[in-house]
Specification:
heterotrimer, A alpha/beta (459), B alpha+beta (129), C alpha/beta (496), A: 459 residues, alpha/beta, Aspartate Aminotransferase, domain 2, Aspartate Aminotransferase, domain 1, four-stranded antiparallel β-sheet, 15 strands, 39% helix, B: 129 residues, alpha+beta, OB fold (Dihydrolipoamide Acetyltransferase, E2P), three-stranded antiparallel β-sheet
């Protein structure tokens, strides 16, 4: 097998050196009754060209070349080519976790830069080296708030991504953490009156998302006020990282749990992505995940090391802040490079383009169908409510090799025939005009069907 | 290493010095040597209740964490703020670096602790020093 | 020193500061196409939510970025450069075809929420990988959702709890051998279980009579790594499984060491009820400096109802889809479906190997570990004489007499051109040297490693200071971890 660097002669020499008669001798500690004496029933060994062909078929079966209007926690942004050029270098791709600092300075310095830039963008003082994704980052941030406040219950907004809420429910269930959910108002934002009722002196934290699942920007200051007044912390989840280019970060938050996928990480059918937790310095000892710190070597030279390791599983074991070991390092490097490429000016311009595209699309859709939650500012997502079931409309849109907005019935049935649409800098005017046209057609035919019915009845 | 005769000791390497109803607590030189460079000390706040034999905080080196066990029960009256910024003081002078002061709930508890001589013997057996 | 080191040589190596130190206003590495929709007035649209300033975010050009990261990369050791003898990490070759196929358009740019009709490719990848992993482990059902081994452990224990809950009593404790990886007890605590330690016997295996004594109806499960972290196969696994099952407990296997078992034996066949796999270990997905990983959890049929939601199903019309209606599921452990990119790579690895390749890989892994064991026996103390599988654990007992410990030897190994082995783990071996070469090492590379380790042992006798002050040839010498922990500096600031 071509990945194995030994010839039959090598194997024979090694067996001789060990003093073993055959390779089976080395497996003799496995009781005979369990040893497999047949081949595994997996597909036969393939040549490299066959492997590529197999996956190419799968790619064709997976909407390759399609345009997407989906967002909802995973965003289609342009990935500058040097990201892959750089992360594909073997010294990054095939390197281990940087426990041996002297021969991992490349990884360590780039994580230090990542931590700095996330801190800068989120307005927080410290950030970690990554969590699995936005959903688990949110769950871990909530548990962090529980540890910091010594309180047990959590209030979570319904405008937080439904799957994030499911993950939190799973994590909370076994930690004895009662969860209360508060609804959203007519503007798609957290209902402040409901929130005020829900937050008590037992509340460890309030969790909101901004921009929220609907694309709407929350009134973070007002929510922070309510939470802090009762001694609870505010945890803010950010799913669309590009928003940080043009939307003020939630500076009033105690902990921010981010999904950084928008920064140069492929959609990849849901993963791997890049969660991050950022917070104030005073909370750092309760923060999960790896942290890189700056220090000096024996000659006074600047260098970087993993630090505050006593929070982690390999030392604290059952008292660790989290069980996390492997994180999302290579993906965080993609994020790092993306943030470096766009930088101070580019991130703002990128975000502005997103805003402009979504704004245009919402405006055009709005001529034919209803745009929900117009009373609050949005970033690059909005909800379109149609007369026809969005699944049916999307079926027709798919014929144009376009994937339409996410029907919301399964998450928010009260919104009726609503779908969540996302436009980024990748979305062309042509694509927008096409889908708007199809929705317009849909509205017209429903309308005329209704009129036909009326005529029928009248006749 | 001479262990101060006016201290009492636990098998978990804490020392306690009583003065009537109040006492001062720290860790022994053996403890700081075993831990190595101390980087952080996690202590309770004034007003906290601690119970003899139960943990009341922890002390960290780069690669390890050790729980601190209360030699006696009582209410914490003072915490050594210097250790928050300079935990290395414990390495330099463990017996001179107090961690917490407390009002003893039951001063009689100290009678079951080790004397300096007994502690020295205990340490010699344990560490092969 | 010059004569003894054959694998590595010093070379001019580029310096590079922090990217922020290169930043200045007006430099740019980006360019966006012109807007094809009307410009917007951000002030109007966002009001007080508008961000005016991105602070100290850098401004640099493309070539500076290329040089920056290229220079940084040259400061790293990597599998592509040579062996990593790290125990239980399985640092094997990361095949490049894996990288190519994961970048095919429909795979790289598929949105997790796209309609099932346009997701048949991804679903087929999920199904095929699942089937392969089930065949390899001998289990009945699987979830690919967990993002890493620890996440898999969490998912597994959630299912253990759900199972016991369904029988009326969630139970209180998990038994964990003292040789276990730190994620095991950390995970048990996260699921609300207490942890009870299980002692190892003189052969480094589970003490079966201790297990029998400790097993009762308060114990939900035993978390076992097999082979264990000493590289030793639990020969009495049948008894172990029976003891657990007799009192209604479950046997969870940490699959970190599957590289010793694939194609030779299946955990499902020797009594395991559920287990996790580490795709970034056994299945060649790249470590990337610390992740991403993937930790699928495979279970026996009776645990299938508790799997995280959704599961992949075949619909009546023959197409594939996701099933969300799972009333007994433990819920979700993350958004979407898991680290899909790692599934693609793991599947490509499996297809490249086929049944013969997989078996031969395992055989070579065990062969290599035993070759190194033979080569270093007598030079380093071997605390357990039990046969090794894919990894071997020595101790620094001999060298400690000269005041040299495992970490020092590891640092000196760096000068010889290798990455250190795992130091100070497992905890049951004080001063451990835990070595796993994997099948990816040639005889030549292993001979260089054995030679290096022998040479260092000689240095310990002749010139211990050389070892104690190592490494000598790296860009930075030993770093002050104490200062880093006492006064953490976790980000760059302009005044730094």
């Amino acid at each position: 097998m071509r990945y194995l660097p030994k010839s039959p002669a090598d194997r024979a020499a090694i067996l001789k050196a060990i003093g073993a008669g055959s390779i089976d001798d080395l497996f003799s500690s496995i009781p005979a009754e369990y040893r497999l004496n047949r081949d595994l029933k997996v597909p036969r060994q393939m040549a490299e060209s066959e492997i590529v062909d197999w996956f190419r078929e799968r790619s064709h079966e997976n909407g390759d070349g399609y345009v997407t209007f989906l967002g909802a926690g995973a965003y289609s942004h342009y990935r500058p080519v040097i990201i892959d050029s750089l992360i594909s270098r073997g010294e990054f791709l095939t390197a281990y976790t940087p426990y041996q600092a002297e021969i991992s300075q490349g990884t360590l310095q780039s994580i230090f830069e990542f931590q700095t830039m996330i801190g800068e963008l989120t307005g927080m003082e410290v950030a970690n080296a990554s969590m699995y994704d936005g959903s688990t980052a949110a769950a871990e941030a909530v548990m962090m708030a529980v540890r910091l406040t010594g309180r047990r219950s959590v209030v979570i907004a319904r405008s937080v991504h439904p799957e994030y809420r499911e993950v939190l429910a799973t994590y909370a269930f076994h930690q004895g953490m009662p969860l209360a959910t508060t609804g959203f108002d007519a503007n798609g934002r957290v209902n402040l009156k409901e929130l005020e009722q829900a937050v008590t002196s037992e509340t460890a934290c309030v969790l909101i998302q901004s921009p929220n699942f609907f694309g709407t920007i929350e009134d973070v200051a007002a929510v922070a006020d309510l939470a802090h007044k009762k001694g609870a912390m505010l945890v803010v989840s950010i799913a669309e990282a590009v928003s940080l280019g043009i939307v003020e970060p939630p500076r009033e938050a105690d902990i921010i749990a981010m999904e950084a996928q928008s920064f140069g990480v492929p959609l990849g059918f849901g993963g791997p992505y890049c969660g991050v937790i950022a917070t104030r310095e005073k909370n750092v000892r309760q923060m999960p995940g790896r942290l890189v710190g700056q220090t000096t070597d024996r000659n006074g030279k600047r260098g970087f090391v993993l630090t505050l390791a006593t929070r982690e599983q390999h030392i604290r074991r059952e008292k660790a802040t989290s069980n996390i070991c492997t994180n999302q390092a290579l993906v965080a490097l993609m994020v790092n490079i993306f943030m470096t490429i766009y930088g101070k000016v580019g991130l703002r311009e990128l975000a502005k383009q997103n805003l402009a595209k979504a704004s245009y699309a919402a405006q055009q859709f709005g001529k034919h169908a209803k745009i929900l939650f117009p009373g609050a500012p949005r970033f690059n997502e909005f909800i379109v409510q149609t007369s026809e079931d969005p699944y049916a409309i999307n079926g027709r849109i798919l014929g144009h090799k376009i994937v339409g907005g996410l029907p919301l019935k399964k998450f928010y049935p009260e919104l009726g025939n609503a779908a969540l649409w996302c436009c980024t800098e990748m979305t062309t005017r042509t694509a927008i005009d096409t889908v708007v046209g199809l929705v317009a057609e849909s509205e017209r035919s429903v309308k005329s069907a209704k009129e036909a019915d009326v005529e029928e009845v009248a006749r | 290493m001479a262990y101060p005769a006016d201290f009492k000791y636990t098998k978990e390497h804490e020392w306690i010095k009583a003065n009537g109803n109040s006492a001062t607590i720290g860790i022994t030189n053996y403890a700081q040597e075993s831990l190595g460079d101390i980087v952080f000390v996690d202590l309770p706040k004034p007003g906290a209740e601690i119970t003899a034999g139960k943990t009341f905080g922890s002390v960290e080196s780069v690669k390890a964490v050790s729980d601190l066990y209360a030699p006696a029960s009582g209410t914490v009256t003072e915490v050594n703020g210097e250790l928050a910024t300079a935990p290395e003081k414990i390495n330099k002078d463990a017996h001179g670096s107090w961690m917490i002061k407390l009002t003893l709930k039951n001063p009689g508890e100290l009678n079951s602790l080790l004397s300096a001589a007994d502690y020295e013997k205990f340490v010699a057996e344990e560490g092969g020093h | 020193m010059k004569d003894r080191i054959r694998k590595a040589t010093r070379h001019v190596n580029q310096n590079e500061g922090l990217i922020f130190e290169k930043s200045s206003a007006g430099k740019a590495a980006w360019k966006l196409p012109p807007l094809d929709v009307p410009e917007v007035n951000t002030q109007e649209l966002l009001g007080s939510s508008e961000r005016k300033d991105l602070g100290n975010m850098p401004e640099v050009s493309e070539i500076e970025i290329i040089r920056h990261f290229t220079r940084l990369s040259t400061w790293n050791y990597a599998i592509d450069l040579g062996m990593y003898p790290l125990g239980s990490c399985t640092m094997k070759y990361n095949p490049r075809v894996n990288e190519v196929v994961s970048r095919l358009d429909g795979i790289a740019n598929g949105h997790p929420y796209q309609p099932e009709k346009a997701s048949q490719g991804a679903l087929r990848i999920l199904k095929t990988l699942s089937e392969c992993l089930l065949e390899i482990t001998g289990m009945d059902a699987i979830t690919l959702q967990p993002a890493a081994g620890a996440h898999g452990e969490l998912t597994g224990l959630l299912m253990v709890r759900a199972h016991h809950q369904s029988k009326g009593h969630p139970r209180k404790k998990i038994l964990i051998p003292d040789s276990a990886h730190g994620t095991n007890p950390a995970t048990a605590a996260m699921v609300g279980y207490g942890v009870e330690n299980l002692k190892s016997n003189a052969q480094g295996r589970v003490d079966v009579s201790a297990l029998a004594a400790q097993m009762n109806e308060d114990v939900a499960a035993l978390m076992l790594t097999n082979p264990n972290t000493l590289g030793v196969f639990e020969q009495e696994i049948h008894k172990i499984a029976d003891i657990m099952h007799a009192k209604g407990g479950l046997l969870y296997m940490d699959g970190a060491n599957m590289n010793a078992l694939v194609g030779k034996v299946r955990p499902g066949d020797f009594g395991v009820d559920l287990m996790h796999l580490n795709l970034h270990k056994t299945f060649s997905t790249p470590h990337g400096g610390g992740g991403p990983g993937s930790g699928p959890v495979a279970v026996k049929k009776f645990l299938e109802p508790f799997l995280p939601t959704p599961v992949v199903i075949t619909k009546p019309d023959g197409t594939l889809g996701f099933e969300y209606n799972r009333p007994q599921s433990v819920g979700r452990v993350r958004a979407f479906y898991g680290n899909f990119g790692m599934f693609v790579r793991a599947l490509a690895y499996t297809l490249a190997n086929g049944p013969d390749g997989l078996r031969q890989t395992t055989e070579d892994a065990v062969l290599n570990a035993n070759y190194i064991r033979k080569g270093l026996e007598g030079t380093y103390d071997l605390p357990y004489s039990t046969p090794s599988m894919h990894e071997v654990v020595f101790s620094d007992k001999v060298q400690a007499k000269k005041g040299v410990r495992t970490m020092d030897i590891a640092k000196r190994l760096i000068d010889y051109g290798f990455h250190p082995y795992t130091t100070a783990f497992p905890l049951i071996v004080p001063g451990a040297l835990m070595i796993e070469p994997t099948e990816s090492e040639s005889k030549e590379e292993m001979d260089l490693f054995i030679e290096a380790m022998r040479s260092i042992a000689e240095e310990v006798e002749e010139d211990p200071e050389m070892v104690l002050a190592a490494p000598h040839t790296t860009r930075v010498s030993r770093l002050d971890e104490v200062a880093a922990a006492r006064k953490p500096v976790l980000r760059w600031k302009p005044e730094n």
